[in-house]
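chain below, 268 aa
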Amino acid sequence: MRLRLCTWNVNSVRLRAEQVARFVQEQAPDVLCLQEIKCREGEFPLNAFRDMGLPHLRIAGQKGWHGVAIASRLPIEDAPKLDVCREGHARCVGAKVAGVEIHNFYIPAGGDTPDRAENPKFDHKLDFYEKLTAELSRRDKAQPLAVVGDLNVAPGEFDVWNHKYMSRIVSHTPVEVEAFARLKASLDFIDLPRETTPEPVKMASWWSYRAADFRVSNRGLRLDHILVTPGLRDAAFRLGAAASRVHEDVRAWERPSDHAPVSADLVL
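prediction:
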């Protein structure tokens, strides 16, 4: 069976429920992981997701901020918790779908100053990465596990519009890139979008609202990720090559999120 796994920082699920429904109709995800839902569990638009054909849900909500959810066409089972947010924010939710353990994260952006001593938000971001990496290091990389979401780091030179400039800006500083690399190494994670579109092709999944036309400005960052363990290598490459993409067209819809969805197909 094909399992289409998608991640999207939707930037308010209630505001963009119609866009989510359009995306689901056009792309037919089996599992949709959302970040920044910006609502509590009881405020989540359950009926809209049932109408979309995604009735199975795991939600971690918070009033007005953060919040993550997993919506699935297939039944969901509980997964071991990876709640590594020291501030108690709703930034982590996990589930098992079709035997695949999926963990959906909205990792802190980190503020404006890339200094742990001066900026508590940046320290929180790195602490989140450290705790998550330590937890994952205890797991078995042969097990089918996916880490997805807005991980708020553009990890490679070709994941930013200007490597030299962005190396001084939070999201692409050397210390963040190193933290991402340690996370990836913890279970030998496979970066499916990059396997599909190898460097030096540039990729982005986020574009600032400040640009009148994000495509003309072309100052994007690849902040949204689908990482899978070697236990899913065969599923990801069963058709000969990884099938993963950024749905850039969604960023051009009316009143969009500043993030575009990212998808990957697994053949189980």
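The CA atoms of residues 249 and 260 lie 8 Å apart. Residues 120-136 form the longest helix (17 residues).
thats it, cya
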